[in-house]
Design brief:
The chain has about 150 residues and is of the alpha/beta class. It has one domain: Rossmann fold (3-Layer(aba) Sandwich). A hairpin with a 2-residue loop joins strand 4 and strand 5. Helix 3 runs parallel beside helix 5.
Length: about 150
Amino acid sequence: MVRLLVLIGLTLISLSDSSAAASRRVALVVGVGEYAHAPALANTLNDARDVAAALTRLQFDVDLVINPDRAALEKAVRRLGQRSRGADASLFYFSGHALEVQRVNWLLPVSADVKSDDDLRFEALDLTAVLEQIESKAHVSLLFLDA
């Protein structure tokens, strides 16, 4: 966790100009730990809160989302896409369960009930959807998965 925060800080320092106040930085930080149909994760919520606090100190406008169901996760990602337009930096951080199936990466919301590969489309969020929301909208886009 400490290495991740240091990496984020160094990356942002190298990207920033001399006036941090003039830059606009947005972030979506998602922590999922209390799964209904998968093993609970002990540290994801604390990690998400710690990352959100660190990003706030680095002058990010942070949207912290804890234990979202699929609809809430999708809504937060769409909101990040809107907020990313014209931003100097856009950052997405996810701490929770994720899967890779047939070269597609899926983020699992708290409500995910995956019994077969066919369920993923309806129960999880394709990481490509996140990338589509942040790519080419901000000067710099960063994506961190702790999954």
